[in-house]
Amino acid sequence: MTIIAKNVIKEFGEPPTRVIQGIDLSIHDGEFVSISGRSGSGKSTLLYLLSTLDDPSYGHITIDGIEPQKMSVDELHRFRNQHLGFVFQFHFLLPELTALENVLLPARRDNRHYDKEDEARELFKTFGIVDKIHKLPSQLSGGEQQRVAIARALIMRPKYLFADEPTGSLDSKNGQIVMDILKRCNSEWGTTLVLVTHEAEYAAMAQREVFLIDGRVTENHTTS
Amino acid sequence: MLFLAIRHLLSRKKQTVLIFLGISLGTLMFTVISGMQLGMREFIEARLLSNTSHIQISARDNIIDRDEMTERFYGNQPVDWLVPPAGKREEAHIMYPQGWFDRLSNDPNVTGYSPSFTMNVIISHRESKYPSSLIGIIPTMYQQVMDLQKYVSEGRITDLSEGGNKVIIGVSMLKKLGSQIGDNILISSGLGELRPFKIVGTFSMGMEQIDDSLMFASLKDVQTLNKTPGQINGISVSLVNMERAHELASQWQLTSRDKVQSWEQANAQFLQIFDFQDYTRLAVTAAILIVAGFGIYNVLSIMISQKRKEIAILRSIGYPPKMIMELFLIQGIMLGVTGAIIGLGIGHLINMYLSTVSLGIGMGGDNTMTISYAPSIYIEGFLLAFISAILASFLPARAASKLTPLDIIRSDV
Ligand SMILES: Nc1ncnc2c1ncn2[C@@H]1O[C@H](COP(=O)(O)OP(=O)(O)OP(=O)(O)O)[C@@H](O)[C@H]1O
Ligand SMILES: [Mg+2]
Asked: Nearest chain B Cα to A43, which residue?
């Protein structure tokens, strides 16, 4: 299954300004696609459209063959819970929950947090933060917080992982660690990864690079 | 969402505790004020019922009707009366007592009835005269309707045997007369001659105006004193269920020209005070709960504006709006419910304490405040807190559920 965008247009404001100006794009299962471009080129907007967080003004987007707008509110949220993972520039961890509780939050939705606990511990181990498992977010470094946020995005084993500048607030060392994790998650588990980044180095790690200028795709090429 | 709700509340202990106090205080006040007011009501109702039966049937005065007289004497001729006929035709009495007795003894709602003849008398003692109401009863029947024996401090009501000219009088009256049990007093109907009656007992109902003016004697003796043998002017009725007094009284009234009154009707003016009390009680409580409700509203509103990011992330990991709403509603409800339970609990303890404090004034009984522990107090108190908590958390919770993840994630830097 895939994500397919057909002539997608997104307008904001009144009078409407087009931020996404007619994009056709397919993302295949298991692919690692990077989206890059200058600030304000519409990278985030496109990512939100591809990931059900936003609806296009015109055109169609299907994910697994379904248009998100056509799902009921409950179906949409269940779909996000089971199939989508999100990582943003900021970690958005809940400050009153420990690292482990934060990671298990998606599983808690349907009371599956007990089943998922071993898996969560495994993720902490893989990410090299097993000693932080019972710490509160405020007791973690930025890189550790972001790794916990990635673990939270992965706990439900989603088919799709959407990352918007996940390294944006990290130093290069931590940025590298986070990128390694994301890359491994794509190559080892076959998670479809859509990464927004303005760092050429990270964009180049993808199998396919998409460049945006003013809401239009100007390049869309597969790296060797 | 319970888990998260609890974490949220625990993460802001100070505010939580404050709200908690507000709600607890509100329900506590409600419990204590209600306990005292309803207690007073129970106390006074018990007093009223000690000399008011559930239903009282009494004779209506037979007032002469001018038009009826004209017609009876002159038919349809026009008549100008110089002195029109007026006034009472005869002393009020129940016209057909046997009809009532048959009816009452066959009614399954009735547990007992007691015919009586009440008359105003004058007691002459030494050089003084005292007005008094003398009630003629058949002791065994009267006891079935009202527990007079409970209030009799000396003697037994069964001592009021027929033809013995014996009376039981109130303690205050005994004091006023300066008499003792066993003494004779002279009683007259005001028209006839004085007759000696022997004091064989005293009662104390705890109400001054009753204890110094009422006397009980045997029905026969009173009828004889009034020279109206066989007449009665009252029937006291006790019911299986006193709540039905009003309903049954109205029903019986339809088919009788005697006056049929429930105990509430007989004491209507008195009982009006309690309606007023209910309003003040609710007003005080409402004021407190409104304050507490605003507290909940504020805390949740502030919490939600601080937690916009978290709400956004919850939405993106698949928590639908209704679960977000639940998250904040639960917090409001938990504050309301636990606050209410604690308030009710402490209020109950305060009430238990209050009911042991001696008032040091003669009210009859054991001289302590009567406190009501009616379940309705606790149910109403709980519901008040619960409903105000739900109302106060509903708006913020709904606002939270309407936040979309995107605006927040995007706007945050
Ligand atoms: N909700 C909105 N209302 C109005 N304009 C918006 C809205 N969201 C985005 N825009 C505009 O759309 C354009 C693209 O925004 P977007 O966030 O997608 O850019 P970006 O490529 O992610 O930039 P950056 O690298 O800085 O994150 C910007 O000019 C932005 O101001
Ligand atoms: Mg962006």
From this structure: B410
**Which amino acid would we find at residue B302?**
I
**Dist CA B7 CA A93 (whole Å):** 14
For residue range B93-123, what is the model confidence (pLDDT) as tens digits?
888 889 899 999 899 999 999 999 999 999 8
Q: Do A96 and B405 touch (CB under 8 A)?
A: no
CB B226 within 8 A of CB B156: no
Domain ranges, ordered by start, for chain B: 2-48+270-412, 53-70+85-265
User: How many whole angstroms separate alpha carbon B241 and alpha carbon B322?
Assistant: 48
Q: What is the pLDDT of residue A55?
A: 93
The tokens describing B248, both together, are 């049954």
Q: What is the DSSP string of A177-209?
A: HHHHHHHHHHHHH--EEEEE-S-HHHHTTSSEE
B contacts of A86 (beta carbons < 8 Å): 313, 316-317
Q: Is the pLDDT score of B173 beyond 70? A: yes
* B5: nearest CA partner in chain A: A96
**Residue A33: pLDDT above 90?**
yes
Is the whole-model pTM more than 0.80? no
Report how far ligand 2's centroid is from the alpha carbon of B413 (Å).
10
- With a 6 A CB cut-off, is A43 part of the ligand 1 pocket? yes
Q: From the CA of A165, give the closest atom in ligand 1.
A: 27
| B237-284 confidence digits (pLDDT tens) | 998 888 888 889 998 888 888 889 898 888 887 778 888 888 888 888
Q: What is the mean pLDDT of chain B?
A: 85
Cβ(A40) – ligand 1 distance below 6 Å: yes
Is pLDDT above 60 for B363?
no
